[in-house]
Amino acid sequence: MVRIQTLHTLLDLQKSGFGRPSPRHGLDLLYWFANRCVEVSYWNLITVLYDPRTRVYGFRLFHNDEELLPVTSQPYYLVGNLNHDEARNLPDYVRREYNRNLNISYTDRIIICVGRFSISVYVTNFNPNQTYQISPQLLRTIRRMEREDFLRETTSSTRETPQRNVPERPTAVWVRIILIA
Predict the structure, then answer these.
(1) What is the pLDDT of residue 1?
(2) Any idea where the domains of the chain sit in the sequence?
(3) Separation of alpha carbons 172 and 153, rounded Å
(4) pLDDT tens across 102-137, in order?
(5) Which residues of 26-131 form beta strands (DSSP E)?
């Protein structure tokens, strides 16, 4: 069973290391997503403003084959791959640091799980130890902020600090053995 930490505050987000170091686009992507793709009700219900099946802004079905997220019968959709044509519709501030030849500049993604009665929001760089659920309260906090203030609050004391030191889950390694007779 996958256990994912939920980020409730800007400090939680800052401590997670998501979207850093520069030139990663995750924090700008999260700011855009919170302000343009969802609304959060007084009762902490998240409403998606765009149907991700239309691929607007580069949303794609995410199959969760490696079980990065909890297994569910509801679909997951991901956004943030700047290589997709539809990503050109993202704001300039999200795409500004993109460099096709520099993988770190576009590793961050937002993944949403769209259920009948609930929506879950996750941020990831595809490292299981650096995948987090974003609480409705954090989305609401981000929505109330100016972008510059959001970036300052989430990067201020960690600008030169590398991401938190979390041991990575071992990854599968495929080895091909060729026997020569």
Answers:
(1) 67
(2) 5-155
(3) 37
(4) 666 568 999 999 988 889 999 999 999 999 999 999
(5) 38-40, 46-48, 60-62, 76-79, 109-114, 119-124
